[in-house]
Amino acid sequence: MDSLSSLAISPGGMVLLAAFLQTVAYLFQNQILMRVLLLIGTFLYLWYYFIAAAEPLWAAIYGTAAIAATSIFGFAALLIGRSKWIIPTAHREIFEHFPGVEPRVFRKLMKAALIRDVEAEEVLTEIGKAPDHLFYIISGHVMVEKEEAAFQVPALNFIGEISMLLGKSSKASAAVTAPAGTRLIAWPRPKLERIVQNDPKARISLEALLARDMAAKLARSRA
């Protein structure tokens, strides 16, 4: 027992503990827990480089300190990106209807969007034409005409989601009209496509949202 205690507080024990923590860290999918363990291991290495020799190992200390600083910056960015406080107050109610989307991703999506009120009846999509926007209905409703059938789609639904998922060449299979008073979010397709191409997490989040929206519409149509 004494030998184990001595090893635990010895420089060699610190190195072993640091290596153990940093190895175990990669077994966790939770990014916060992983980064905390990596940081603890890094600080143990720093302490080791101070006490392992008669003089501090400055070269190793500087290098490890630089790694620690980068890790702290990344950890802070991760925490900030998951905080709802980065979402503008005006958008927080909308955010509640975007399950599974990180605040950072939501903020990026909303920067590319325009929230507006429809002043006069407006055609959002036309049959046979690729939509140039993805829409989300905040309040009100839209009218859908498809294969000799007409029906309303209420608020909290996307419009143009199928074309967005299938790509630029996909054409609208329904004509969608928004009456005056409808409040909606409009994303220009080029801006949205650049975001999902450059940010894998944004692409996964948006695809999940659109797939969930399509599944809900299909369930309602069969009810």
Characteristic terms for this protein:
223 residues; alpha+beta; four-stranded antiparallel beta sheet; 9 helices; 8 strands; 54% helix
Radius of gyration: 26 Å
Spatial ordering of strands, largest sheet: 1-8-3-6
Tally of contiguous helical segments? 9
Bulk shape? elongated
Low-pLDDT sequence parts: none
The share of residues in helices is 40-55%
Strand content: 15-25%
Structural class: alpha+beta
Q: Mean of residue pLDDT?
A: 87
Order of helices and strands: HHHHHHEEEEEEHEEHH
* Secondary structure: number of strands: 8
How far the N terminus sits from the C terminus, by CA atoms, comes to 68 Å
Largest sheet: 4 strands, antiparallel
Layout of helices and strands, plus pairs?
Layout: H1 2-9, H2 11-25, H3 31-51, H4 58-81, H5 92-95, H6 103-111, E1 114-117, E2 122-125, E3 133-139, E4 141-146, E5 149-154, E6 158-159, H7 161-166, E7 175-178, E8 183-188, H8 189-198, H9 200-222
Antiparallel strand pairs: 1-8, 2-7, 3-6, 3-8, 4-5, 4-7
Helix pairs in contact: 1-2, 2-3, 3-4, 8-9
Describe the structure.
With 223 residues, the chain is an alpha+beta fold. Helix content is 54%, strand content 17%. The protein has helices spanning 2-9, 11-25, 31-51, 58-81, 92-95, 103-111, 161-166, 189-198, 200-222; strands spanning 114-117, 122-125, 133-139, 141-146, 149-154, 158-159, 175-178, 183-188. Strands 1-8-3-6 form a four-stranded antiparallel β-sheet. It has a four-stranded antiparallel β-sheet with strand order 2-7-4-5, with no helix packed on it. Helix 2 runs antiparallel to helix 3 (31-51), helix 3 (31-51) runs antiparallel to helix 4 and helix 8 packs across helix 9 (200-222). The longest helix has 24 residues, at 58-81. The model has no long low-confidence stretch (mean pLDDT 87).
